[in-house]
Amino acid sequence: MITLFAFSAVAQQKYYRVQLLTNEKGLQRLSAAGVTIDHGDFIKGSSFTSDFSEAELSAIKQSGIQHKVLINDVSAYYVAHSNDAVTDKSEAAPVTCTTYAKPKNFKLGTMGGFYTYAEMLATLDSMAAKYPNLITVKQVVSSTLTTAQGRPLYYVKISDHPNVDESEPKILYTSLHHAREPESLTQLVFYMWYILENYKKSPYVKSLVDSTEMFFIPCLNPDGYIYNQTTNPNGGGLWRKNRRVNGDGTFGVDLNRNYGYKWGYDNVGSSNFTSSDTYRGPSPFSEPEIQMVRDFCNSHPFYFALNNHTYSNVLIYPWGYKANTYTPAPDSLIFKNDAIRLAQCNGYVTGTPNQTVGYIVNGSSDDWMYGEQTTKAKIFSLTPEAGTSADGFWPRKNRILPLAQINMDMNLTAAQFTKESVLAAVVATAANNDNMIEEKQPAITGLSNAPNPCNSYTYVSYQAGKSTGSNDLKLTVFNASGVVVKTIQLNALQTKVLVNTANLNAGIYYYSITDGQHKSNVAKLIVVK
Ligand SMILES: [Zn+2]
Predict the structure, then answer these.
(1) Is there a single domain that holds both residue 142 and residue 195?
(2) What is the distance in A from the centroid of ligand 1 to the CA of 294?
(3) Is residue 286 part of a domain?
(4) Given 80, 110, 131, which residue is the final one in a domain?
(5) 527 CA distance to ligand 1 middle (Å)
(6) Rounded CA gap, 411 and 417, in Å?
(7) What is the spatial distance between Cα 335 and Cα 439, in angstroms, rounded to a whole number?
(8) What is the rounded average pLDDT of the residues 263-278?
(9) Which of 272, 277, 391, 405 is the most exposed place for a label (fewest CB within 10 A)?
(10) Could you tell me if residue 74 is inside a domain?
C-alpha cells in the first residue's frame, strides 16, 4: 500500500470529484487504505461523493470498488464555476428562521470570494480598530510555539470587557483545521461582524456578549491555507493537511487526526501512511498547531466549542473513534438535544460521525476536547460541516453569504448554551432520571416548536411513527429543574399542537412526547415576556 502513495510526493496534486458506489463497509475499507472519507455527500447504504487526490483515486481503483469520476481536475472546475448563478432551489437558505442581514463591514475576499491569509488578519485588525470595547486585538495562541513554517496561531476574544479575564462561561469557535475549507472561516467572520455591529441594537446579542467570553481561532492551519493560496490564487486549492515535512518526500499531517484522545485507535479512523490525507502524524500532539490548541484549552475553561468544517450539512459530536459508542449519560443527552436545537434552522443532520456520514475518526478535536477530563474539564465540542454537495469545498461566490447566514442561528445558540451552561446540566440529569433509553431510534420524531422563543403560545410539531400506541400520546412540558408544568393529550394522526404559554413565567422549559412505551427526544422551549 505504501508504494501506492509514493508518487503523491509531487508538490501540487490533481484532484477529482468521484462518486463511490458502495455502502459503509466499502467506505471503511477505503478509509483503511488512506482514502479520506469525511466531508462529502453521503447517501446511506449506496454512495459517497467527494474530491479525491490522484493518490486516493489510485487507491480507489486498486480496491475494485465501483466508482465514477464525475469531474476531472476539480480545482479548475471550482474556479471556472465560481461566478455561476445558483439554480438549485434546495440550496436556498431555509425560510423557517430569522434572516440575518449582511453586516455592513462584511466583505468577500479576493480568492474566489474567500479571504487570503493576509485579508483574514486585516479583518481581525479592522474589527479591533472599530470595536475596541468588544473585541481584543489579535493575540498569539502560544508565546513559544509556531507552525512548522514559523507562523503563530492567532485568536481574538469577543466579550463585554474583552481585555479583562472575567469569570463568565467561555466558548471556543475554530475554523480551518483543514486548509481547503474556506467557508468555515468566512461564516465565522460574518458571525463576528454581526455580533459586533448588533451589540447595541439587539438585546439578545448583547446578553450573549455580556455574559460569555467568546474565543475565536479563525485559522488553525495557516501553513496549509497559505499553500492553497500559493498554488491556486483564485481559489480551488485542495490541500487539506498542514505542511510538516514528513521526511520521506511527503508533506503534511491531518490536524483533525492528531489530538491525543484515542489517537491511532485504529487505521480506519486515521491513517498511518504519511502520504494519506488523513495521516495522523508520528505521535499524539506531534503537530505544533494541535499542541497550541491543547495548551489553550488547558488554560481556558471552555464549556462549549464549535470546530467548523465544510462540507456535508451535518453537525457531529463525540464519540468519533468507534462506531455505535456514545458519551456517558447525561452528556450524551446534552449532545443529542443541544445538537438538535443547534441545527433547527440550518437543517443539518445531527449525530456521531458514524450516525451521520457513516465514518469513524480517531484523534479528532471533538473526542479530545470532550474526552480529556484530567488536564481540563470536559468541553461540549461539536463539528458543523457547512455546505451541500453542489457547494463542495469552494462554493460559488453567490453561495458564500447564504452559507454564512444559515450558520448564524447555530453560532448564536451555541453562545446561548454557553451562557446557560449550568441549566443544561440540570435538565439533562432530570431527563436522564426519567428512564429515557439512550440512542434508541425514537418512534416519535421531528420534535420542534415555533415560534421559539415564544410569548403567549407556540406550535409544537411532531411525528408519531406507526409503532406508537396512539391511545396515550401526550406532550409533557417541564421546567429547568425537571418539574412538570403542563401536559397535553395528543392525536397521533396530527403533527402539530398549539401550546398555550401565556401562564408560564419567562424562562427555559423542555418538552418531550411519550406514548406509554416510547419517548421522543427532549427539546427546548424558551418563554419570553
Ligand atoms: Zn474538515
Answers:
(1) yes
(2) 18
(3) yes
(4) 80
(5) 36
(6) 10
(7) 11
(8) 95
(9) 272
(10) yes
- List the CATH number of the domain containing 31: 3.30.70.340
pLDDT, tens digit, for every residue of 93-147?
A: 454 578 899 999 999 999 999 999 999 999 999 999 999 999 999 999 999 999 9
d(CA 102, CA 116): 20
- CA of 306 from ligand 1 middle (Å) equals 12
Task: Give the C-alpha separation, 15 to 40, whole Å.
Answer: 14
| Closest of 243, 252, 232 to residue 34, by C-alpha | 252
d(CA 187, CA 408): 8
Domain count, the chain: 3
- The residue from 427, 454, 486 where one domain ends is 427
**Residue 17 belongs to what domain range?**
3-80
Distance 176 CA to ligand 1 centre (A): 7
| Mean pLDDT, residues 301-324 taken together | 95
Distance CA 498, CA 475 (A): 11
CB-hemisphere CA count at 13 Å for 255?
A: 32
Do 377 and 473 fall within a single domain?
Answer: no
- The x, y and z cell numbers of residue 395, run together, are 462554493
Q: pLDDT tens, 253-264?
A: 999 999 999 999
Is the whole model's pTM more than 0.85, yes or no?
no
Distance 39 CA to ligand 1 centre (A): 6
Distance 209 CA to ligand 1 centre (A): 28
CA–centroid distance, residue 181 to ligand 1 (Å): 6
3-class SS of residue 116: coil
Task: Give 177 Cα–ligand 1 centroid separation in angstroms.
Answer: 6
Q: Distance from the CA of 477 to the center of ligand 1, in angstroms?
A: 38
Q: Can you tell me whether residue 16 is helix, strand or coil?
A: strand
Are 423 and 456 within one domain?
no
Q: What is the distance in A from the centroid of ligand 1 to the CA of 273?
A: 19
% of the chain beyond a pLDDT of 70? 90
pLDDT in tens, 401-455: 999 999 999 999 999 999 988 766 666 555 554 433 333 445 777 888 988 888 8
313 occurs within a structural domain: yes
Whole-number Å distance, alpha carbon 139 to ligand 1 midpoint, is 24
- Check residue 439 and give its pLDDT: 38
